[in-house]
Design the sequence.
């Protein structure tokens, strides 16, 4: 079954690569002169290295592209999707093959995220963005505190799991949870940190979060990216540079993650979850200020 999952993911990757490669070849003489290939490659390496650690790549990529004036704002959404698709698929391939996860749990959670993004988008899109950010921010901050309490020995019995799969009620919770996280992705809420928190709270090994969260995103991204390519709504040179740099960053970071002891990996997850919760709460506060000013 793992081979089936990887085979489907491989087909998605191939389909995207053909469309992306064909567009680059067709427009090789029209690559953006204001964009530095070297800078884009460096950005790709940095953001995808940290993406593999669970930080997420869209926000830092946006910040760096703007800081170095590499991409016009109107092309940033397309560039983010197109440039990160192959690195994220590579992350999924490497983690699924190197981290052991029970296949039923893996397939169910991957499918739930994809279905959530497709079906749940209509529901989530009707919710106020500020409300979503506040709820997720508070929930992640609470999870980070509980993880910190467990790691520091303040409480016992929480997050001690080493399970590589779920069954019964916990599996149902995992499926529903990832369905919701898939839907939240369409509202701009990253899946990585919430998925880490979900896996931890359900008693699974911290390493199990990586193939699940990377796989979830890998199955979602190719379709959106192909649309951006066909609509010519992305920066070609930046996307190529970020992709190349990203592949290198992923290969180095995956080795780091898979070789870390679980105790250190848990501390890494605490940092990622805390960072994400703070960014969500700051965004919610900023959103509220904008509403008041208007």
Sequence:
């Amino acid at each position: 079954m793992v081979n089936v999952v990887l085979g489907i993911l491989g087909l998605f990757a191939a389909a995207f690569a053909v469309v992306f490669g064909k567009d680059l070849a067709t427009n090789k003489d029209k690559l953006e002169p204001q964009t530095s290939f070297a800078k884009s490659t460096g950005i790709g390496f940095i953001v995808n290295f940290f993406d593999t650690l669970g930080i997420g790549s869209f926000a830092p990529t946006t910040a760096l592209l703007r800081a170095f004036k590499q991409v016009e704002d109107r092309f940033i959404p397309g560039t983010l999707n197109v440039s990160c698709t192959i690195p994220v698929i590579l992350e999924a391939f490497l983690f699924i093959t190197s981290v052991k996860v029970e296949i039923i749990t893996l397939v169910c959670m991957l499918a739930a995220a994809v279905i959530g993004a497709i079906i749940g988008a209509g529901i989530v899109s009707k919710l106020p963005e500020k409300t979503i950010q506040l709820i997720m921010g508070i929930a992640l901050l609470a999870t980070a505190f509980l993880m910190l309490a467990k790691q520091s020995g303040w409480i016992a019995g929480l997050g001690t799991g080493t399970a590589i799969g779920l069954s019964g009620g916990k599996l149902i919770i995992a499926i529903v949870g990832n369905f919701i996280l898939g839907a939240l992705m369409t509202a701009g809420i990253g899946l990585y940190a919430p998925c880490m928190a979900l896996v931890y709270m359900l008693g699974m090994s911290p390493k199990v979060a990586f193939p699940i969260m990377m796989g979830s995103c890998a199955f979602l991204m190719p379709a959106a990216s192909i649309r951006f390519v066909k609509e010519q709504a992305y920066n070609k040179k930046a996307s190529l540079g970020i992709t190349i740099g990203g592949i290198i960053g992923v290969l180095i970071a995956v080795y780091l993650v898979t070789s870390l002891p679980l105790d250190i990996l848990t501390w890494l997850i605490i940092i990622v979850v805390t960072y994400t919760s703070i960014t969500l709460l700051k965004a919610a506060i900023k959103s509220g200020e904008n509403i008041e000013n208007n």
